Amino acid sequence: MIREFQSNDLDQVMAIWLNQNLFAHPFIDPSFFKNNTDLVRMILPSSEVYVQDIHGIKGFIGLTDNYISGLFIKTEYQRKGLGSSLIERARQVRSELFLNVYTENKAAVKFYQKHGFVQLENRINEETYQPEYFMGCKVDHTIKIGKCAL
What we know:
Shape: globular
Strand order of the largest sheet: 1-2-3-4
Oligomer: single chain
CATH architecture: 3-Layer(aba) Sandwich
């Protein structure tokens, strides 16, 4: 079940955020994520966040306007459609979506491409100095399941 974030979800969501950032980004010094935990904990409750809650939170997606500020699924629940369902939820509430993804995170790049996101720019992340793609899609709301196209 996908539902809106509630304040009592914060600890579970933060644990997923930190663990999955450390797992998916071994090319970034772990202290970067650990040092940003307090900032994310402060910002997250005021963001638009949807959680995948199946007997506990298994993942979440955060939206800031049309920007996907994060999509994280617990490792043991990845490749089971949870990330896809969260992308579909974002498509239901937005007419276009954008995101940044590290180029070295090949699994995430492939996931977003599978869901119709296209590479718009190559960038260097200003905080980590790692190369990333800026990707986006426009949502076609005329079909039952949102489809991205640019």
